[in-house]
C-alpha cells in the first residue's frame, strides 16, 4: 500500500484523496446508469452527486470528529479539516448526504422514496465499497491484532502502525469493502421484486448497519462507549431498529393503499 502515489513539486498526491474522489465519481456514474435505465430523473443525477458527495464528505468528517475522536480533536481543533490523516465515518456521510438529497428532491419535485430506491441505495453502497480501498491505502479503519502470524502489516507511516506497530491486524476495511459489493448485488436483486416504495433504500440501511455492527468487533481504531459497544455499533443498532420498523410500515402502507383502490 502507498499513502503517496507521487509528488508534484512538494505537493503530495495521496492515494486516499484520489480513490475517495473516484468513489464519488463512480458512484455518481452508477446512479446515472440506473436512473437512465429507469427513464426518470437521470438529468438530475450529476448535480445531486456533487451536492451529496460534498455533504457526505463533510458529514463523514464531522461524525468522526464529534462521535469517535472528540477526546483528541477538542485539543486539536485546527486539525479537524485534515481529512488526509484519516477519520471519516461513513455513517455520518450517509446521513448528511441523505438530508441534502432529500432537500434536493423536494426542491425539484422528485419522488424522494422512488428516487432513493432506483438510484441512491445501490449507488451509495458501491461508493462505500470503493471508498474502503482508500482506507486500506491510507492505513486507517484498520482492525485490531489477530494474535497470530496472519493479517495485514502496515507501513510505519500509517496510523495503524503507530497504534499497533508491526503486529498483524485483521483486514476489517478489506472485508467491509467486499461485503458492500455483496450488498450492492442484493439490492439490485431486491429491486426486481414487487417491493413497496422505500424498501430498497431502507434495506440498504439495515444490511449495511448489520454488517458494520459485526465488523466493529474486529476494528482496532475506536474505543467503547456504552455497554461494551462502540459508537458505530450503537449507531448501527439504532439504524437497524428504525430500518426494520420503516420496512414493515412501508409494506403495510402499500398493502393498505392497494386494498383501498379495490
TrEMBL record:
- For this UniProt record, give its keywords in alphabetical order, as a comma-separated list: Cell membrane, Lipoprotein, Membrane, Transferase, Transmembrane, Transmembrane helix
Q: Name one GO biological process term.
A: lipoprotein biosynthetic process
Subcellular localization: Cell membrane
* Amino-acid positions noted as binding a 1,2-diacyl-sn-glycero-3-phospho-(1'-sn-glycerol) in the UniProt annotation, renumbered to this chain: 132
How would you describe this protein's topology in the membrane? Multi-pass membrane protein
Report the principal subcellular site: membrane
**Signal peptide (residue range):** none
Keyword S-adenosyl-L-methionine present in the record's keywords: the answer is no
One MF term in the entry's GO annotations: phosphatidylglycerol-prolipoprotein diacylglyceryl transferase activity
Q: Name one GO cellular component term.
A: plasma membrane
**Where exactly are the transmembrane stretches of this chain?**
13-33, 45-63, 83-105, 202-220, 232-252
* Pathway(s) the chain acts in: Protein modification; lipoprotein biosynthesis (diacylglyceryl transfer)
Q: What's the EC number here?
A: 2.5.1.145
UniProt keyword annotation of Transferase present: yes
Q: What InterPro entries does the database record attribute to this sequence?
A: Lgt (IPR001640)
What EC class is this? Answer: transferase
- Family from the record: Belongs to the Lgt family.
Record function comment: Catalyzes the transfer of the diacylglyceryl group from phosphatidylglycerol to the sulfhydryl group of the N-terminal cysteine of a prolipoprotein, the first step in the formation of mature lipoproteins.
Would you tell me the protein name for this molecule? Answer: Phosphatidylglycerol--prolipoprotein diacylglyceryl transferase
Q: Can you name the source organism?
A: Lucifera butyrica
